[in-house]
Amino acid sequence: MIEDHRQPNIAAAAAPADSIVGEELLVDSSTDSDSTFGEAADSTTTSLASSVTNYRYEHGRRYHGIEDGRYSLPNDDAEVERLNLQHKVWEIALNGHLYVAPIEHESLNEVLDVGCGTGAWCIDFADAHPGVQVLGTDLSPIQPHNVPTNCQFIVDDANEVWVYGERFDFIHTRTLLLGVKDWKKVLQQAFGALKPGGWIELHEFHIPIACDDGSAGPESAVMKWGTSMYEGFKKFGVDSMATAKFREYLEEAGFEDIRETHTKFPLGPWPRGDKEKAMGALFQKDIGDNLYGLSVKTLTQGLGWSTEEVDKFIQEAKADMNNPQIHTYFPIDIFWARKPR
């Protein structure tokens, strides 16, 4: 098992929506120093054995080998570490819970996690629900070997035709936004893959990032990073603001009881509150320490920048992210909805 992910006290019940970090983040004036909050534990880099390992190497990073241009982020060990750290941020945000939807536990048989990344959520869910079969899918086989017996991973592309049939009781996605070009199609297929009465839950951020107090203006490097990434993703056919249309797409697909909540993940331990500081410190490390790897392909291939331009720009944006007097955050949108019985 994966000691650094699996928590013996993972909450099996749904997180009350009002317990999630709210939309208002208040600045803690005491963070105008170089202090940080907490340390991330080491995480595994063991990969799942698979024939789909024809990786590509660019800009000193490794990328998946399925359909060039489909997904612009790396899949190497550094990215595995980053995704595992990001899982911890979500864990704090949801107070240890794994979902928000009011799932009927006694009716759970099969669960699907689309774009599972390192498989951390699948492993936690499988541990918390040992009688439930959990399937995680992703473009890259970067999940560990040693997992609960009720957990399985396969290489699959959510953008292609789904062949599961009406099978799952719960479908979950988290930070899948940059891997989907047609969310309307994906949500229609998710509707078809759910049993009547089943739930879907979407945990997604969007880019550009934001700042409420004017500490980072539109000409600052960190805010330019957000807008540049948004434009770069568009060149790959990805809308990094797609969550604005999720309710419409869910309704069109046929879902009912559609609900949503919105929060913010701070970039740095600048907000008041221990929970917010912990999230901000880890998320700053998650994004800031990996900013070049997250950005280089999008800015070079998407916007045509030179690697020299990217190097200089990323240094400036990272300096802003690490500046305690600059208070930026990623907007986070969570949706959950039910398929009619």
UniProtKB/TrEMBL annotation:
Q: Name one GO molecular function term.
A: methyltransferase activity
InterPro entries (alphabetical): SAM-dependent_MTases_sf
Q: Name one GO biological process term.
A: methylation
- Segment forming the signal sequence: none
Q: Which Gene3D superfamilies match?
A: Vaccinia Virus protein VP39 (3.40.50.150)
* Superkingdom in the source lineage: Eukaryota
Q: List the keywords (alphabetical).
A: Methyltransferase, Transferase
**How is this protein named in the record?**
S-adenosyl-L-methionine-dependent methyltransferase
Give the originating organism.
Phyllosticta capitalensis
